[in-house]
Design goal:
By secondary structure, this protein is an alpha/beta fold. Helix content is about 25%, strand content about 25%. The strands form four sheets. Strands 3, 4, 5, 8, 9, 16 and 17 form a seven-stranded mixed sheet that branches. Strand 16, helix 11 and strand 17 form a beta-alpha-beta unit. The mean pLDDT is about 95.
Length: about 350
């Protein structure tokens, strides 16, 4: 066991505070990672405040982890000391179900083990990236290409893969019109990746205040959803709408923006239920879907793709004592576009 400095929420809705946690000793197939940077995801806030249901406390959030391997177990073959690596939203799965065998560990039939707010197979709670070190089985670690800066790569482990996976699954690419709904931590990555895939990208945002950023990141068009004319002008316009919004939406209005056989895919997860008139999908044979992160192999594919296209997250680097302020700023969309913690300050 190793004692490690961390930032934790001691209870639901309580401010995060500096503490120490115990990391397990390195096992045969484990990798010990010195964490350099950890992104702040809206999911961290949902869970630390029990917005998605009962949670485990004390909680050390963080599933956008970038660092350097400092020790490996005797059976490790994929990594060596000094390697640049990342850890995303899961650190284990059953490895035996059809989904795991297909590289879809995020949909593990037995339930994957989250990087934090979960219980590992050893019965111990998992603690995330707001800490100095983490121990992870090599099969749930990915390699960060040398051309990506570690601080800009950290958010790719959630925001990057969460947008890349559905964009690939629904075949975003040349000849496709893709709308990204929401221009935040997830949305800005969706714009970059969809553009790099060759799609014609439109941003749908509440206002036009981030229009210049959206166009700079790869959007060809930018519309305000607060303008009712937007829904008239764009009716039937899109093959795919990727919703990164974590607030309830008028789904019927957004489904009207799809072409026949278009898909509206949710990666944002509101805490409240949403209403739907089923005629909104029946008319036009439309798909209302969801998507959750990606498997380990696809996460590596995403990192390699981002390296090839020089894609990193747009970040604001903060010290650990700014985490609580950062949470409040995320809730009012006051970040462009992802907070990343310099974990040396923990």
């Amino acid at each position: 066991m190793t004692t490690v400095a961390a930032y934790a929420a001691p209870a639901a809705k309580a401010p995060l505070e500096r503490t120490t946690i115990e990391r397990r000793a390195v096992r045969e197939f484990d990798v010990l990672i010195d964490i350099e940077f950890a992104g702040i995801c809206h999911s961290d806030i949902h869970q630390a405040r029990e917005g998605w249901g009962e949670a485990i406390f004390p909680m050390v959030p963080g599933h956008e982890i970038a660092g350097i391997v400092s020790e490996v177990g005797p059976g490790v073959t994929k990594y060596a000391v000094g390697d640049r690596v990342g850890v995303g939203c899961l650190v284990d799965s059953c490895r035996e179900c059809d989904n795991c065998k297909a590289g879809l560990e995020q949909y593990c039939s037995g339930g994957n083990v989250g990087t934090y707010n979960a219980v590992g197979k050893d019965g111990e709670p998992t603690y995330g990236g707001y800490s100095r070190k983490i121990v992870v089985d090599e099969n749930y670690v990915v390699r960060i290409p040398d051309t990506l800066k570690l601080d800009e790569a950290a958010p790719l482990l959630c925001a990057g893969i969460t947008t890349y996976s559905p964009l690939r699954h629904w075949n975003a690419g040349p000849g496709k019109k893709v709308a990204v709904l929401g221009m935040g931590g997830l949305g800005h990555m969706g714009v970059k990746i969809a553009h790099a895939l060759g799609a014609e990208v439109t941003v749908l945002s509440q206002s036009l205040r981030k229009k210049d950023d959206g166009l700079k990141l790869g959007a060809a068009h930018y519309y305000a959803t607060s303008d009712e004319n937007t829904f008239k002008e764009l009716r039937g316009a899109f093959d795919l709408i990727l919703s990164t919004v974590s607030a309830p939406l008028n789904l019927d209005a957004y489904l009207s923006l799809l072409k026949t056989d278009g898909a509206f895919v949710n990666v944002g997860a509101p805490e409240e239920p949403v209403a739907l008139n089923l005629f909104s999908v029946i008319g036009g044979r439309k798909t209302l879907a969801g998507s959750g992160i990606g498997g380990i192999q696809e996460t590596q594919e995403m990192l390699d793709f981002c390296a090839e296209h020089s894609i990193g997250a747009e970040i604001e680097l903060i010290d650990a004592d700014q985490i609580n302020d950062a949470y409040e700023r995320v809730l009012v969309s006051d970040v462009r576009y992802r907070f990343v913690i310099d974990t040396s300050t923990i």
